[in-house]
Amino acid sequence: METTCDHGNTYWEDGSNGRCYEVCADCGMYREVDPDGLPYSDVDWED
User: Fold this and answer.
1) Where are the domains of the chain?
2) What whole-number distance in Å separates Cα of residue 25 and Cα of residue 14?
3) Rounded to an integer, what distance in angstroms lies between the CA atom of residue 31 and that of residue 47?
4) Do 31 and 13 touch, CB atoms closer than 8 A?
5) Mean pLDDT across the stretch 3-11?
6) C-alpha dihedral (44, 34, 38, 40), degrees to nearest 10
7) pLDDT confidence tier of residue 3, bands split at 50, 70 and 90
8) Average pLDDT value for residue range 14-18
9) What is the overall mean pLDDT for the chain?
10) How many Å from the N-terminal Cα to the C-terminal Cα in the chain?
11) Is pTM, for the whole model, over 0.70?
């Protein structure tokens, strides 16, 4: 099993649908965040 990324190196990206995403520069995974940049509690990282 590969070590999972800790997503420590992230940047923000605006989606075309008006949503915001936190993207990990290390592994390329992303998750949707609210307009304040806070992650939703039920949203997992996706690749």
Assistant:
1) 1-38
2) 15
3) 9
4) no
5) 88
6) -30
7) low
8) 83
9) 88
10) 17
11) yes
